[in-house]
Amino acid sequence: MATLKIYNYIQSEQQKAVASFWGEAEGVCFKDIDTFCNGLSEKDDDIDIRLHCDGGSVTEGWAIYDRLRATGKRITATVEGNCASMATVILMAAPKERRRAYQSAHICVHNPWMCPWALGDAVTADDLQKYANDLRAEQAKMVDLYVERCGCDRAEIQSLMDEDKYIDTERALQLGIIGEIAAPLSASKKEKCEIKEIINKSTNNVNSERMTEKKIEVKASVLDRILAKLGLKSLDDFKDEDLKGMDLNTADGDVLTVDREDGSPEVGDVARPDGEHLMPDGTTIVVVDGVISEIRPAQDDAPEGEDADEQKGEMQETELDDRDEEEQRLRERIAELEKENEELKQRLADAESNAKTKDDLRILNAVKMAGGEKALARFASTYKPESRQPQGKQAVKHDTGMSATDIIAAHDKMYQKKSK
Fold first, then answer.
1. Pairing of strands 99-102, 180-182
2. How many CB atoms lie within 10 A of CB 84?
3. CA nearest neighbour of 174 among 152, 192, 196
4. How far, CA to CA in Å, does 286 sit from each of 60, 248, 250, 301, 320?
């Protein structure tokens, strides 16, 4: 499993360059993730994403999300601290059942926004309207993603985005942003059980709100027959102690339950499960709609008495005759193989005696006259290829991120420095 840790702000490559120039912590850009994906082994089918990130560039975030899903790998994502803004989009790269967060983690989804300095010195009403349309389009895109990947209600997730606040893991679990609250490995057995109980309660509450009423239909004829067999008139008269059955083993190792205290099963007995059941004694019991409808006797065509003994003797004699014939065939085959072996030995000896042709002898003489093996050694190559050296980045730096304000300040400092 390949592990991808995203612990810093999501930045563009240009923003990373500015941060690096001023010695500030660099963030994570699309190019870093692309390098990571290109380095994955074809044999490794899993990516484990670890998130502790407050978001960042919308463009870079969407690009990272698409690149991870394009790998075709099985993705798991874990929130280890904070997961906010575009980091929640990257979280969606994993399916709901493989998205999880530690109990103390916090998650924030909000509407996209634009820094004031990005508007420039002067803007018109048309400019503002264009920016507003772009932001609304991005907002709708994010809502669509959350609804698709979380299975949450559109109005509910939009209301949470409007509030722009952090929520705990229980709330995130209810909305489907995560599918599991991960217990720490060092937690005690009691603590893990409490966490599991919280998960179950949250899941059950969500399921109960969305579950539709299901009707169970029971065939009246089947129910009446079962009740009549039990000596009851209605289900109101039924008690657990009224159901008495014996479990019979079938020839296939399954269990056939017949509702009677003793004796052999009979047609009309209440039994389960439905189907044809072959019993060890060869009989077949057919159960239809919870009642035995047929019992077929064992089919035994084997002869009995003297006829059986005579047939058994004939079978034994036939088997002995077959064995004698097979033994004779094997002896004949062994003799043939021994003869072929002798012929091959002779052919090998003849080939060895004629191995050296005139060209072979001419070459051997030339080698001897040139000085033999020592002369050949002078023409041997001693070149040895150099071993390969590792290249490329081995990992992404894991430092703290920088805010948009820090980036602007850094850009102004760099501009002033170059002006001087």
1. parallel
2. 19
3. 152
4. 66, 14, 12, 22, 43
Question: Which residues, other chains included, contact 338 with Cβ-Cβ below 8 Å and sequence gap of 6+?
Answer: none
The residues spanned by each domain of the chain are: 2-210, 220-296, 310-371
State the number of CA atoms in the 13 A half-sphere of 46 facing the CB: 6
Q: Do residues 98 and 75 make contact, with C-beta atoms less than 8 angstroms apart? A: yes
Fold for the domain defined by 2-210: 2-enoyl-CoA Hydratase; Chain A, domain 1 (3.90.226)
Closest CA to 94 of 1, 162, 211, 26: 1
Q: What is the pLDDT of residue 349?
A: 73
Contact (CB, 8 A) for 187 and 161: no
Q: pTM for this structure?
A: 0.47
d(CA 365, CA 348): 26
Mean pLDDT by 10 residues, the chain (420 residues): 93 87 88 95 92 94 96 95 96 96 95 78 85 93 96 96 95 96 68 55 48 37 54 51 68 85 83 90 89 84 55 68 82 87 80 60 60 52 42 38 51 51
**Cβ–Cβ under 8 Å, residues 119 and 107:** no
Q: Kindly state the tokens that stand for 120.
A: 């420039």
DSSP states of 156-180 as a string? HHHHHHHHT-EE-HHHHHHHTS-SE
CB neighbour burial string for 390-408, b if at least 16 within 10 angstroms, e if fewer: eeeeeebeeeebbebebbe
